[in-house]
Design brief:
CATH architecture: Roll
Number of helices: 4
CATH class: Alpha Beta
Radius of gyration: 15 Å
Low-confidence stretches: 1-9
Length: 153
């Protein structure tokens, strides 16, 4: 009876598109101690997508990485809002301009309705920045956060 009242999660990506995004996350993290997460939902609860990304970043406990180098790619598909939010360790290295450029690059793909490719390309770019500032340490590196896509409502 209670299942009638649950909201169904909207599925915005095909299986192949999900695999493309997940593979991009895994590839980005192969050469860095940094962590990347992707969060997709239909509508943004806030006016500003960065505020929502900040909230989700905290809910996913992404500030718990040892070097504070976690990055969240946030997309509210139906509201057409997005943000890229980085923890203080990586933010101190790349600054606001990097995050804004990342969003702009995603938008170029989104405007052509290449959503999964846009996310994958930005994850790759984030991975390159993380690799430069936080290179992979074979002796000490641990995958601190899951690589799967998180889907909200």
């Amino acid at each position: 009876m209670f299942h009638l009242f649950r909201k169904k999660t909207v599925d915005f990506f095909s299986t192949e598109e999900k695999q493309t995004i997940t593979a991009a996350i895994q590839a980005a993290e192969r050469s860095t101690s940094g962590e990347v997460r992707v969060y997709i939902e239909s509508k943004c609860r806030f006016v500003n997508a960065v505020d929502r990304a900040t909230e989700i970043f905290s809910q996913l406990k992404m500030e718990g990485t040892a070097q504070r180098n976690g990055v969240l790619v946030y997309v509210a598909v139906l509201d057409r809002q997005l943000a890229v939010y980085g923890d203080e360790g990586i933010h101190q290295k790349v600054g606001n301009v990097f995050w804004k450029e990342s969003v702009a690059k995603m938008l170029l793909h989104f405007n052509k309705e290449n959503y999964a490719e846009g996310i994958a390309q930005v994850v790759k770019q984030i991975g390159e920045a993380l690799t430069y500032h936080f290179p992979y340490d074979i002796e000490n590196d641990v995958n601190e956060l899951p690589d799967d896509i998180v889907f909200g409502r």
